[in-house]
Amino acid sequence: MAAYIQQLLFEPKNIIFSNIIESISNFMLTSHLKKRFLIENEEQIQEEEEDEQEEFEETPKEEYIQPKQKDSLFWCIFIAKHGYQEYLEIQNHYGSRQMDLQKKVCNYIKDNTHLLKSVNIRITKAMVQEIISDLMTEIKKTSIYVLYVYAFYFQLNIVIMHPNEKCFLKIFTENENFENTIVLLQKNEQEQYTLLNDNLTLEEYLELYNDKYCIENHIRPLKALSSYKVSELDEIAEKLDIDLEDRPMKKQEKYDEITKLIKWY
Fold first, then answer.
1. How far apart are CA 162 and CA 213, in angstroms?
2. What is the distance in angstroms between the CA of the first residue and the CA of the last residue of the chain?
3. Quick check: 157 and 131 in contact, CB under 8 A?
4. Whole-number Å distance between alpha carbons of 41 and 179
5. Secondary structure class of 29 (helix, strand, coil)
6. Entry pTM
């Protein structure tokens, strides 16, 4: 193009118009150039859409979400309440965000201690003081008692699968208020937690309840031996896949075998 302009200015008599057309063809909106432009534009749009898709796919594709922090139990609850995207947006401020939330929950509990009666476990005054003490400090690992408070504060029904996946701990509020969201966590042998990507429906929870043994109290997963009939222990053993046909057991043996399988710590 520059050569053509130079020739036009200084050697106009030597201009051959067929050569002019050829020299400026790359700058003319010919059908060929238009087609090439459309193809390049489509490729660019496709690349931009792919980039946007990568940014959008912040929600994990895995069935379970695994928080990267040591206190995985706290962050599972945070994600269950606020969503995975908000969790990612915290970036490098996880410690301060956790402390901020703990203080809010702590202040709320101080003013509403009586409302803790709504959770499905008896929380004594001594336990309340211990929970408040935990919430006021930088917790390395959220305790199950603090989890009961989070369940109440965030209005969540929480199901935690035992590492053996044969039983689960139930943390419900307000006498099994099924209007609250039901979230499922998986605990492993190292006491790290992951969160099921999707909340449980009521039907899914009831199916789980019928198939697996439900632990009402993580400190005492079973009541005293005298509280059970042999048939009741047999039902629990069946849910835990304990073989009673090839290995007949007395009542105490059944009780001990069940206790060994469902202990929480």
1. 10
2. 80
3. no
4. 50
5. coil
6. 0.74
**82: exposed, middle or buried (Cβ count in 10 Å: 0-12, 13-18, 19+):** middle
Token pair of 244 as six digits: 């009673």
Structure tokens at 52: 């946007």
Question: What one-letter code names the amino acid at 123?
Answer: I
Reported as a single tens digit per residue, the pLDDT across 213-265 is: 999 888 889 999 999 999 999 999 999 999 888 888 999 999 999 999 999 87
Gap between the Cα atoms of 220 and 27, Å rounded: 82
Residue with tokens 């050829």: 22
Tokens representing 5 are: 């302009």
27-80: pLDDT as tens digits: 565 666 666 666 666 656 455 545 444 444 455 567 899 999 999 999 999 999
Residue found under tokens 């118009």:
17
**Distance separating alpha carbons of residues 184 and 205, to the nearest angstrom:** 9
Centroid of chain to Cα 7: 70
- Residue identified by tokens 């408040």 is 132
For 172-205, the DSSP string reads -BTTT-TTSEEEEEEE-TTS-EEEESSPBPHHHH
CA proximity to 131, closest of 118, 151, 115, 147: 147
The strands making up 64-65's β-sheet, listed across from edge to edge, are 64-65, 193-196, 181-187, 156-161, 167-171, 213-215
The residue among 246, 211, 253 whose CA lies nearest residue 230 is: 253
